[in-house]
Design brief:
Helices cover 7% and strands 42% of the residues. By secondary structure, it is mostly beta strands.
Length: 191
C-alpha cells in the first residue's frame, strides 16, 4: 500500500514545516479529562520524524490532536502545506489509517505503521511516555530531583523527556533509535 506512505504522520516530505498552522476544531475527544494517573488524555502538538535511508536523510512533520483512553486512541494529523488530513484510530484490536487516498488496517498500531511506511516505531509506548511514565519493558530509566522521568530505554529506542518549569507532565519527547530514526514530539495539554 505505497499510496498511504506519503500521508502517515504527513511525513516523507523533504524538510520540515516552517509555518505555524491553526488546528481545527475536530479534536478527537475520547475523554473529557485531560490528565490523570491512568492513560486518559487529550493533547495537541507537533510531531517530526527523521530517518536515514539509502536515498539519504528524509524528514517531515505534522500537527496532531490525540485523544487516549487506556489502550484506545484517536489521532488526527494535519500535514505540511495542505498535504491532507490523516486519521489514525485504534480500538484495542484493530488499527485504522484513513486519508484522502483510502483506508488501511492492521492488528496493531506498530503493524499499521510498518504496513504503511516500512518503519517500525514504539507507538504503543508513546501514551505512557506522553504522561511521563515508563512503558512496559522500559529499562535504564532516570528521574530528576522532582521525581519526574527524564530518560528511559525500551529495546533499541531511547527517550528523553523535557518539562516546562515544575510541570509533572512532559512538554517534549525526543526519541532515538539505534538505527538513526528520530522522533521529536511537542505536547500541549488543554488548560
Amino acid at each position: 500500500m505505497k499510496f498511504i506512505r506519503p500521508f502517515i504522520f504527513a511525513l516523507i516530505v523533504t524538510g520540515s514545516l516552517s509555518a505555524c498552522q491553526t488546528l481545527t476544531k475536530s479534536t478527537p475527544v475520547i475523554s473529557e479529562q485531560a490528565y490523570d494517573d491512568s492513560l486518559h488524555f487529550n493533547i495537541t502538538g507537533k510531531i517530526g520524524i527523521s530517518t536515514n535511508t539509502t536515498n539519504g536523510k528524509q524528514a517531515g512533520s505534522a500537527f496532531y490532536h490525540w485523544g487516549q483512553q487506556e489502550e484506545r486512541f484517536a489521532i488526527d494529523l494535519t500535514g505540511a502545506f495542505g498535504m491532507g488530513a490523516t486519521q489514525i484510530r485504534y480500538d484495542g484490536q484493530q488499527a485504522t489509517l484513513t486519508n484522502d487516498q483510502g483506508k488501511l488496517q492492521a492488528d496493531s498500531p506498530e503493524a499499521l505503521l510498518q504496513k504503511a511506511t516500512g518503519w517500525h516505531a514504539p507507538i504503543s509506548h508513546l501514551p505512557y511516555w506522553i504522561v511521563g511514565k515508563t512503558a512496559q519493558n522500559d529499562t535504564d530509566s532516570q528521574q530528576d530531583e522532582q521525581g519526574r522521568l527524564i530518560k528511559s530505554t525500551n529495546d533499541n529506542w531511547m527517550v528523553n523527556f523535557e518539562y516546562i518549569k515544575n510541570s509533572p507532565r512532559p512538554s517534549r519527547l525526543v526519541i532515538h533509535h539505534t538505527d538513526g530514526h528520530r522522533v521529536v514530539m511537542t505536547i500541549v495539554y488543554p488548560n
